[in-house]
């Protein structure tokens, strides 16, 4: 249900506590005390039939007896009573409940199922059960049994663990930070991580979102919410259970490499989330992101009075992928003027153990002006020469002065004070200077900020367009899979694998089939004539591991050897597996590429996130080497390059000594093709290419295995992918009423240049009517929001001139979190208005919205845009002036009504043709 009803739950005007108690140390009393202590301004009622009053509060026997309907009910009653409490709450119209009690059970027939069904029928939201509770300091809400009241701030915390939430409250209090909201979600009977991501992403009071999660229930919902939220603000996540053995029973090398935690890591990376690995790192990230600090890059300058500590900090920085800032000539000269002889004249800037406050400030001012540096870490070791607290005060005054003159990004300063006491820490807190107990903590925190910055840039990067449109023959590939499944087989045979790979333009060694020794000689002859040795392999769909029974013989160079090898492997198979059906043998040329690198590529199956693309170092010792990286499909070339670059073997793809470099982008392109195969054909359960040879001539799959099965579950769009892929089925041609034709297709992320060019052919007035303001310049970030769509929540169709390929119009929709209502927008090339293009695009969008199960299509139209309002009226939209702004008309189309049929309009997609008749 996503954000539906959450505003009343997290900012209630009235609250009822059901299960309040006067018993010391009880859950009910703890929650009541917190509700009263937080300063909640609304009415608080206590419900308990066994008391007349609790802590001075008059009680009521049940919810129906209350003189008002509470927005939020906090429940601490025994588990057995909760179904009745929820039934009463739903009957009186309560918006939501936070169930702190445990013991409701799980699954069919449990108390939890009964509670969930009741709440769902009445549109009532549930948080918990088995949770710490909910705290929203801004709303003066503390419906929890936390030990302390959290301060108001800009961090939101979503936690599956009540203990983690409580620990965060204690830590943040020490750092004078605060929260915009804390929600302990417990068993996630209704409200889950994705719902709260959607909520806090749109919350103006939240600057960053912290998450502690143990498992994701709905992968697509989670990925959609996380990707949307990460575009707006930092998301930092700790995931528990990193050592779970998720790949023990994997049937392929690829599956063995794709452990459960590695898949979560890939999901977080794809969503643009910043993953940390323990609570201390989560705290450090909160220290920085909670104050809004983001560096310009990964170059760090270090200012210290202790040379050894500075060197340790540089070592850690390099180990974590950071870059020690290289001091400019001007910076060194400036430091020479303010520092005594003997300073290090390099980074780290060692200003000697006798440095006082004035020396620190003089050096810091110079470093903050250095354009080669993105941040400065100021370190101090206490000596008897200069008081450490005085140095801290001077440094913070310098930072404050710089912030008053420059942007905070340009003045990012971190501090590490060895042995700092409470007064020194308070000095940094007052000045909002992030401080850390050791140089290691400070450098790690800085590098997490760098990773967040890099993830934000990658999330909005425009991919190149050349790879996503590679030719593929999906129907042919589906026929191969369907044939295997119809015969009840779980594995493709070698010939079928070749056909599958050829359909997706993945080069693979030729494979021919021979029924017996004589035919094997005939089939091997063309290869032998080229001077190639051949391999003879057993061909039996009943025997998966051919090598185990001696069913593979290599290096054959004569007709006689081929014939003997064929007879041998067939005889071995009959002896070892007399029950197996033998189709014969396969003949393959033995390809020798002297400089080729052996890689592994594949598709693994994760029970939560579905297909996962795996890449790494190939060969027989692939699991031992364990050099791999994972990514969620679909992939574009940017994502594929990143996947390759996260492995050690990527360095071997470049030229070295007498070995030429692997052809540029040939490996990433192969990964894009493999990801597209996973998107197109959900029946491919696992796929393993090992090895894939890669050299300056290209790539070639030497051996592959493919497991197929009918998927137990498909997401909307008939795919197993957690990230909904590009909907190619909506590509086609649109016939307009005047007889002309345009090509239509969904927008892709790589369409940014095309969209930018399109905007230049739209008049300023039409742009104003579309965006409600004058639009002169269109930034990358602005266009990226239009083109980088989450197809699970949004759609945009581009109309293209069939002669030039130029964009001539677009129509788009963005759904609400319930996926019931979608807002639309439309824009046409100004000189093409009046030809029926806008009408046809709207009909196409209506057809798409209906096919997706959306219930309403709505939009905001300026009252002066009479052309759009006239079209909306003809189609069947209702219209009403916005009460708070009479310049705007709200239009709504009920998609349950037969609008298109009533107008005599038919939208069909057949063989790539969309007809508007």
UniProtKB/TrEMBL annotation:
This is Bifunctional acetate--CoA ligase family protein/GNAT family N-acetyltransferase. PROSITE patterns: GNAT (PS51186). SUPFAM superfamilies: Acyl-CoA N-acyltransferases (Nat), Glutathione synthetase ATP-binding domain-like, NAD(P)-binding Rossmann-fold domains, Succinyl-CoA synthetase domains. One of its GO terms (molecular function) is acyltransferase activity, transferring groups other than amino-acyl groups. The keyword ATP-binding applies. PANTHER family: 3-HYDROXYPROPIONATE--COA LIGASE [ADP-FORMING] (PTHR43334:SF1), ACETATE--COA LIGASE [ADP-FORMING] (PTHR43334). Pfam families: Acetyltransf_3, ATP-grasp_5, CoA_binding_2, Ligase_CoA_2, Succ_CoA_lig. Keywords: ATP-binding, Ligase, Nucleotide-binding, Transferase, Tricarboxylic acid cycle. GO terms for biological process: tricarboxylic acid cycle. Residues 742-898 form the N-acetyltransferase domain. The lineage of its organism: Bacteria, Pseudomonadati, Pseudomonadota, Alphaproteobacteria, Hyphomicrobiales. It comes from Bradyrhizobium uaiense. InterPro entries: Acyl-CoA_Synth/Transferase (IPR051538), Acyl_CoA_acyltransferase (IPR016181), ATP_grasp_subdomain_1 (IPR013815), CoA-bd (IPR003781), GNAT_dom (IPR000182), Ligase_CoA_dom (IPR043938), NAD(P)-bd_dom_sf (IPR036291), Succ_CoA_lig_flav_dom (IPR032875).
């Amino acid at each position: 249900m996503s954000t539906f009803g959450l505003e009343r739950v997290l900012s209630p005007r009235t609250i009822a506590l059901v299960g309040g108690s006067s018993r010391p140390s009880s859950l009910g009393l703890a929650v009541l005390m917190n509700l009263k202590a937080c300063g909640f301004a609304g009415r608080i009622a206590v419900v308990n039939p066994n008391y007349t009053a609790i802590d001075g509060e008059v009680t009521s026997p049940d919810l129906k007896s209350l003189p008002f309907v509470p927005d939020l009910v906090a429940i601490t009653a025994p588990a057995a009573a909760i179904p009745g409490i929820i039934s009463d709450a739903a009957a009186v119209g309560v918006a939501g409940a936070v169930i702190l009690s445990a013991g409701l059970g799980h699954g069919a027939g449990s108390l939890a199922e009964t509670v969930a069904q009741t709440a769902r029928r009445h549109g009532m939201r549930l948080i918990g059960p088995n949770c710490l509770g909910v705290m929203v300091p801004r709303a003066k809400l503390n419906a929890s049994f936390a030990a302390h009241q959290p301060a108001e701030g800009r961090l939101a915390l979503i936690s599956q663990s009540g203990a983690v939430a409580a620990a965060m409250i204690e830590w943040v209090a020490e750092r004078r930070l605060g929260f915009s909201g804390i929600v302990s979600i417990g068993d996630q009977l209704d409200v889950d991580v994705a719902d709260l991501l959607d909520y806090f992403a749109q919350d103006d009071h939240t600057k960053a979102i912290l998450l502690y999660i143990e498992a994701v229930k709905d992968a697509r919902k989670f990925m959609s919410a996380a990707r949307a939220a990460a575009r707006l603000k930092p998301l930092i996540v700790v995931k528990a259970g990193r050592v779970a053995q998720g790949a023990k029973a994997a049937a392929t090398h690829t599956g063995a490499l794709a452990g459960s935690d590695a898949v979560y890591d890939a999901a977080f990376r794809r969503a643009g989330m910043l993953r940390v690995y323990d609570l201390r790192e989560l705290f450090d990230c909160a220290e920085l992101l909670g104050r809004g600090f983001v560096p310009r890059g990964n170059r760090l300058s270090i200012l210290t009075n202790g040379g050894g500590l500075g060197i340790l900090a540089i070592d850690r920085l390099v180990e974590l992928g950071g870059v020690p800032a290289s001091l400019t000539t001007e910076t060194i000269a400036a430091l020479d003027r303010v520092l005594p002889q003997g300073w290090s004249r390099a980074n780290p800037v060692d200003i000697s153990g006798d440095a006082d406050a004035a020396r620190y400030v003089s050096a810091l001012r110079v470093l903050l002006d250095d354009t080669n540096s993105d941040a400065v870490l100021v370190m101090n070791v206490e000596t008897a020469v200069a008081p450490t607290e005085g140095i801290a005060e001077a440094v913070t005054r310098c930072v404050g002065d710089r912030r008053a003159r420059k942007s905070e990004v340009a003045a990012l300063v971190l501090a590490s004070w060895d042995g700092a006491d409470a007064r020194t820490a308070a000095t940094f807190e007052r000045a909002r200077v992030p401080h850390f107990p050791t140089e290691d903590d400070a450098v790690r925190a800085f590098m997490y900020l760098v990773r967040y910055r890099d993830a934000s840039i990658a999330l909005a990067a425009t991919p190149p367009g050349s790879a996503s449109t590679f030719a593929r023959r999906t129907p042919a590939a589906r026929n191969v899979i369907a044939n295997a499944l119809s015969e009840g087989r779980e594995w493709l045979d070698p010939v079928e694998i070749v056909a599958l790979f050829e359909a997706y333009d993945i080069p693979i060694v030729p494979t021919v089939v021979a029924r017996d020794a004589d035919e094997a000689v005939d089939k091997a002859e063309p290869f032998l004539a080229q001077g190639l040795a051949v391999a003879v392999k057993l061909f039996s769909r009943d025997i998966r591991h051919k090598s185990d029974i001696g069913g593979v013989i290599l290096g054959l160079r004569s007709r006689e050897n081929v014939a003997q090898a064929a007879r041998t492997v067939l005889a071995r198979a009959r002896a070892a597996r007399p029950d197996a059906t033998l189709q014969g043998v396969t003949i393959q040329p033995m390809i020798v590429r002297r400089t080729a690198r052996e890689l592994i590529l594949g598709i693994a199956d994760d029970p939560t996130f579905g297909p996962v693309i795996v890449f790494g170092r190939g060969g027989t010792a692939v699991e031992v080497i364990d050099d791999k990286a994972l990514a969620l499909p679909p992939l574009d070339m940017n994502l594929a390059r990143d996947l390759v670059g996260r492995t050690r073997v990527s360095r071997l793809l470049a030229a070295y000594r007498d070995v030429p470099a692997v052809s540029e982008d040939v490996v990433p392109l192969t990964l894009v093709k493999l990801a597209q195969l996973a998107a197109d054909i959900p029946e491919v359960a696992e796929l393993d290419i090992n090895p894939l040879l890669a050299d300056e001539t290209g790539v070639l799959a030497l051996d592959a295995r493919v497991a197929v099965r009918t998927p137990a579950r498909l997401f909307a769009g008939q795919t197993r992918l957690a990230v909904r892929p590009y909907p190619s089925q909506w590509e086609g041609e649109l016939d307009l009423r005047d007889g002309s034709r345009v090509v239509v297709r969904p927008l892709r992320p790589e369409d940014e240049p095309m969209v930018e060019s399109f905007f230049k052919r739209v008049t300023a007035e039409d742009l104003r009517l579309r965006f409600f303001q004058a639009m002169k310049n269109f930034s990358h970030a602005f266009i990226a929001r239009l083109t980088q769509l989450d197809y699970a929540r949004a759609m945009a169709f581009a109309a293209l001139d069939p002669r030039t390929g130029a964009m001539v119009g677009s129509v788009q929709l963005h759904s609400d979190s319930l996926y019931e209502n979608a807002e639309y927008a439309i824009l046409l090339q100004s000189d093409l208005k009046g030809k029926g293009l806008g009408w046809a695009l709207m009909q196409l969008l209506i057809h798409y919205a209906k096919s997706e199960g959306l219930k309403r299509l709505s939009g905001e139209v300026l009252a002066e845009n009479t052309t759009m309002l006239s079209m909306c009226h003809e189609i069947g939209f209702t219209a009403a002036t916005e009460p708070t702004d009479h310049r705007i008309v709200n239009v709504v189309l009920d998609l349950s009504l037969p609008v298109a049929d009533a107008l005599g309009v038919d939208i069909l997609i057949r063989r790539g043709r969309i007809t508007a008749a």
